[in-house]
């Protein structure tokens, strides 16, 4: 698929943003307020989708029934059942809206709480006091202390990275900081904010944000476009970090060979364009970068990210506003934009992702696990040739919003639940 010239894409979206529209408040996937519009949506014809031999797991009515997948495997995958027997151990309780879990080489775990606390929880489940030294966060709405990741050289440098919604003079925005964790796991030193997304905006929504180190040693950062209609078009504008994935060095500089490094007016950290709110990312066993992003109602997406490509939002997207109104002037597929590998309608509200590579569950090798907030489940996706061939919903009986999932050094999966009294779980083979 040919890539659309991004300056042209920006012009298109700016034109759309300038059209007259009626705005109204509505509820998003995270339960906060945004604005929508009554502008009529047009949908380009989709490819035929004869799927008579498939038995999809999802059988509920679609949010947007008239929209059809671009190719047969793009949504409503066949239901599959795991033959892996596992136990779920609750390692910790009473965490305040935990947002991320990061396993350490020794089996201990770093956990962020959205209100601004970072804790060390031992492999045995002992919860440490909040680690000191973190900068202030703006924890309103969807903001707060977000992801945490270990330096590739953590074993020797004890450096960690974290993302957070940073209060700024004229609003807030997502920032990335790093610091050195003390030997007793109680404090951070040499703390430095290494990257600040721009522009700042006075809002409470769509901060992203996941951090993942690639095989190239660079730090990949995912962001949201801040949701509101006035700033949403910046997902297509190259002079803004909003609605992008970024690739930066361990010091926060634009990574070498970034696709727009020499493009006048473009932010040099940009890796890909046209995203709504990305709260899940992971590298597969081939070293390829995948994201799972909150779409509009009926439009959550799994995307395989390629350097410099445009993933469409808000010009090309499945779904509708959370008010039930159409996305202004959008289509579901268009030449020059990358189609999602998979999308959910109805949505799952995805947050946290992990490609499984451990030996504890050999049946799951190569599967993509995704946390589900809205339907309170862990999603397992089976992929073949970059298509989703099966889907399973796990842990639904626990009825908690799953915010993050990560693989530990022993092959177990660690999960945090986004609740006022959130929990940390360990999923390991049944004994």
Automatic annotation (TrEMBL):
The keyword Ligase does not apply. Keywords: Signal. The keyword Repeat does not apply. InterPro entries: 6-blade_b-propeller_TolB-like (IPR011042), Glc/Sorbosone_DH (IPR012938), Quinoprot_gluc/sorb_DH_b-prop (IPR011041). Residues 23-77 are annotated as: Disordered. This is PQQ-dependent sugar dehydrogenase. Residues 1-25 form the signal peptide. It comes from Pontibacter populi. It comes from the Bacteria. Residues 25-51 have a biased composition (Low complexity). PANTHER family: ALDOSE SUGAR DEHYDROGENASE YLII, HEDGEHOG-INTERACTING PROTEIN. Residues 95-425 form the Glucose/Sorbosone dehydrogenase domain. Residues 52-63 have a biased composition (Basic and acidic residues). It holds the Pfam family GSDH.
């Amino acid at each position: 698929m040919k890539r659309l010239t991004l300056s042209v894409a920006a012009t298109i979206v700016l034109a759309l943003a300038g059209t007259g529209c009626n705005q109204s408040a509505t509820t998003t996937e995270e339960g906060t307020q945004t604005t929508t519009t009554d502008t009529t949506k047009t949908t380009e014809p989709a490819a035929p989708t004869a799927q008579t031999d498939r038995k999809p797991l999802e059988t509920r009515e679609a949010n947007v029934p008239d929209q059809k997948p671009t190719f047969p495997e793009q949504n409503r995958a066949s239901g599959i059942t795991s033959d892996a027997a596992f136990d779920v151990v609750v390692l910790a309780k009473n965490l305040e809206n935990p947002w991320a879990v990061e396993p350490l080489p020794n089996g201990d775990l770093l956990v962020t709480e959205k209100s601004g606390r970072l804790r060390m929880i031992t492999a045995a489940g002992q919860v440490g006091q909040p680690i000191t030294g973190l900068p202030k966060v703006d924890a309103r709405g969807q903001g707060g202390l977000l992801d945490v990741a270990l330096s590739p050289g953590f074993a020797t440098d004890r450096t960690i990275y974290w993302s957070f919604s940073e209060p700024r003079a004229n609003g807030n925005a997502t920032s990335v900081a790093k610091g050195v964790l003390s030997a007793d796991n109680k404090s951070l030193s040499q703390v430095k904010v290494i990257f600040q997304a721009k522009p700042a905006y006075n809002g409470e929504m769509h901060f992203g944000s996941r951090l993942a180190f690639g095989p190239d040693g660079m730090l990949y950062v995912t962001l949201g476009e801040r949701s509101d209609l006035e700033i949403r078009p910046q997902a297509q504008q190259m002079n803004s970090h909003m609605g992008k994935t970024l690739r930066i060095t361990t010091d926060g500089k634009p990574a070498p060979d970034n696709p727009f490094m020499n493009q006048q007016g473009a932010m040099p950290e940009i890796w890909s364009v046209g995203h709504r709110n990305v709260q899940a990312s992971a590298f597969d066993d081939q070293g390829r970068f995948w994201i799972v992003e909150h779409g509009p109602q009926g439009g959550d997406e799994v995307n395989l990210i390629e350097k410099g490509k445009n993933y469409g939002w808000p010009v090309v997207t499945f779904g509708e506003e959370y008010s039930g109104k159409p996305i202004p002037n959008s289509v579901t597929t268009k030449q020059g934009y990358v189609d999602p590998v998979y999308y959910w309608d109805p949505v799952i509200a995805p947050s946290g992702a992990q490609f499984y590579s451990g030996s504890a569950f050999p049946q799951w090798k190569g599967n993509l696990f995704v946390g589900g907030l809205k339907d309170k489940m862990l999603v397992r996706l089976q992929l073949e040739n970059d298509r989703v061939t099966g889907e399973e919903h796990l842990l639904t009986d626990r009825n908690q919003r799953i915010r993050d999932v990560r693989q530990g050094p022993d092959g177990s999966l660690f999960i945090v639940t986004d609740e006022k009294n959130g929990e940390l779980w360990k999923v390991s083979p049944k004994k």
